[in-house]
Amino acid sequence: MGDPFLFNFADYVVEWTSSPSIKWLSSGPFLSETTIESNRKITWKVKNVRNFALAGSKNFQVKKLQFENTTVSIALTDQDKFEEIIDIVNFSFPLFQTYFGQLPYSNVAIVETGRDTNFALEYPNLAIFSKDMYINNSN
User: Is the Cβ–Cβ distance between 66 and 108 less than 8 Å?
Assistant: First the structure.
């Protein structure tokens, strides 16, 4: 039978052209940015991952947390949720490092999507969750 989602590890250099108003997070660290006419061309580079993912929105607000050699970028559309998500990351990321050690990647990203989309998806260095996860969540 086999795994239908089996991917080999590869190195990626991804160039993406978009409106300058869109904030992007990806599986790899930012490498460069140039302006072509009225668009922005961004390049990311990452080694030894199974695939590459991008998530972007003009409504994203992005905050970054630093843990030793890893930057965790968080993209949300609701400023009021940052404290909750930052608390979760500040608890879970060091716990992960305690049990599994330092990640071999310098950047990881957490991205919030709209309601009634996906509930949660995981890609190399990029975790996506829906606003639906906040429902019935008490602080």
Answer: no
Q: How confident is the model at residue 138 (pLDDT cuts 50, 70, 90)?
A: low
Q: How far is Cα 40 from Cα 139, in angstroms, rounded to an integer?
A: 39
- pTM score: 0.86
Burial of 12 (0-12, 13-18, 19+ CB in 10 A): middle
CATH assignment of 10-134, among 1.20.58.100, 3.30.420.40, 3.30.2010.30, 3.20.20.70: 3.30.2010.30
Q: Where are the domains of the chain?
A: 10-134
Query: Number of helices (H) and strands (E), helices first, in the chain?
Result: 1, 10
Is residue 51's pLDDT more than 70? yes
Cα 27-110-95 angle, rounded to 5 deg: 105
